[in-house]
Every structure is written in structure tokens, then in C-alpha cells.
Amino acid sequence: MVNSNAFTAWRLFQLNWIPIAAMGVVVLIGGALCGFTIEPVALGITLAIGAVLALIPYLYAFAKGDQADPKLIFPLAALSQLLLIATIMGPLTYVAGVLNWPLQDHTLLAIDRAIGMDPQTIARYVNDHDWLGGLLVRSYTLIKIILLAIPVVLALTGRFVRLQVFVLAFSLTLIMTLLISTFTPAVGTYYGLKIDPAQFTSLDASMYQAQLRDMLALRDGSLRHLELFKITGIVSFPSFHAASAILYIWALWPVRYVGGAAVVLNLLMMASTPVIGAHYMIDVFGGVALAVVGIWLSKYLVEIVAPASSKAQAAPRAALVPALD
């Protein structure tokens, strides 16, 4: 990989293992201390897939050396790390939630009402427009689809550094989200409003119901065995859906034709979080703010890594930085 951008991206790929490893250690130690167990088959399958996806780029880069094609290396490299992050983040939310800090639904609801965005009014409006409810349900699921598409799109368009910065920003934003949510736990808007979501017949409340079930079971101590494919994220404030939407927009914005579509799809995903995810509006604003901080921190770290790569490659630093634009 003689290309200076690819060389910098490779260094960032190594750097990105640090926050992933840190999250993994927290899950292992925190889970053990709190008495959690994880169903081994699903966990083993996902970890094995992630390991294989990571191993292939290493072996290919070792075998080909300077002749290695970055467009083959970085999609698999990023996918491996994102898969491992997704595997870790579910159990990590439960480890964070086991501290049982007081629920903050009343505070978050009060903030929403103070800024003129009552969750019940929003839910009623969407419920009265069937087409809108259906659109938001589909939009909420985009978080996984777009996440898998980003490594392919950015790598094939030669944006190797931007791809690795995205992975780093995704990790850092997740870590900040979990740290904050640990001390501001909440169940969701319906819980805060003390209403049954069944009254909104056109809305899908399954995500809220799953979060309510797991949050209450976690807090009373009856939930300590986690099944990876069945658990749901139990983070309300800040909204990681909203944070992901901003991260996705930033990642794909420079790609011609794709950037505009990314804005539309991710704004729809963000709009779905108050209704389908039962998030307070302040959750959404908090997620947006954290994503901005995560991107800034990641770019700052790259400014530290890039000069080292530049020196190693005897290439001018100016040739590395434009990849971040």
C-alpha cells in the first residue's frame, strides 16, 4: 500500500482496535462482576465472523505488501470492526444499566414539554396519518442497513481515511452515549407519560415494549442471562439512533449522488426515533450533539496519526489531510 492515504488508513485501522478492545474488556469484567451470562452460540458465531473478516485483510496485506489493493482491504477491515462493535454494544448497554441509577423519564419529559415538543402530541399526529407511521417504521431499521453499506461505498470510492475515521467516531460516540446513559437511565416516552401505547393503533410499539420488559427485569435482578439475537438496546438518553444518523450523513456526504440520498434517509431515521423508538426529543438532540463531538475527536486523533504516517512514507502531510474533507 504505497498510497499515502491508504497507509494512513491502515494506521487508523490499528488504532480503531483500542476502543473496541476497551469495550470488550468492560463487557467481560463488568458482566462477570454483575453476574451476567451470554448465550454462547450466537456470541461465538458473530465473534468468529468478525475475526475472519479481520484476518483476511491482514493476511492479504502481508502476502501482497505494497501491491495490496486498498479497495479489497478496507471494506473487510471496517466491516470486521463494525460487526464486533455491534456485537459488544448490546450486552454493554445491559452492563451499564445494572447500576440502577434513578430513572429520569420525568426529567426528560419535562424538558420536552418545556421546549414545546410533547411526546403524546407527536405520537397522536403520526398515529392519525397511517402512511407516516409505516414510513417511520421502515426508516427506523435503516440503522443496520446503512452501517453495512458505508464500508463498501467509501472503500470503493477511495475514501479510505474517511472510512476509518467513521469507524473511530462510531466507537467513541457509542462509548460517550453509554457513559451518559448509565447515569440518566430512562424507559421511554410511553412510560414517562404513563399511557398504554396500544391506544395508538397505527404505531409499532414493539421496540418500546422490549425495552420496557428488559429495563424493568434488569433493575429487579431477574434478567442476567443475555441472548445476543434477542436483546434490545436499552439506551434512551442520548439516542444512538440519532447519533448514528449524523455519523452516517457525515461519512457519505462527499460521495457524489450518494450523499444527498444519505441525508434524506438518515433524517427519516432520526425522525422515527421519537415515535418508533419511544425516545424523548431531548434524546435526539443529545445524540446529535454527541455525534458532532465524536467526529471532532476522531478527526483530532487523525491529525496526530497523519504526521507519523507522512513521515514514515516520506510524503508531504498535505497529501493526507484532504482525505478528511
Round the Cα radius of gyration to an integer and report it: 21 Å
Task: Count every helix, treating DSSP H or I runs of 4 or more residues as helices.
Answer: 14
Spatial gap, N to C terminus: 21 Å
Estimate percent helicity: over 70%
Low-confidence stretches: 310-325
Structural class: mainly alpha
- β-strand amount: under 5%
Mean pLDDT: 89
User: How do the helices and strands follow one another from N- to C-terminus?
Assistant: HHEHHHHHHHHHEHHH
Major beta sheet summary? 2 strands, parallel
Number of strands: 2
Strand line-up of the largest beta sheet: 1-2
Shape: globular
Total discrete domains? 1
Q: Would you mind describing this structure in some detail?
A:
This protein is an all-alpha fold and 325 residues long. It has one domain. It is 71% helix and 1% strand. It contains 14 helices and 2 strands, in the order H-H-E-H-H-H-H-H-H-H-H-H-E-H-H-H. It has helices at residues 4-15, 17-33, 40-64, 70-97, 105-114, 119-127, 130-140, 142-156, 160-183, 189-193, 206-220, 240-252, 258-272, 281-313, and strands at 37-38, 225-226. It has a two-stranded parallel sheet with strand order 1-2. The longest helix is centred in the last third of the chain and has 33 residues, at 281-313. The radius of gyration is 21 Å and the shape is globular.
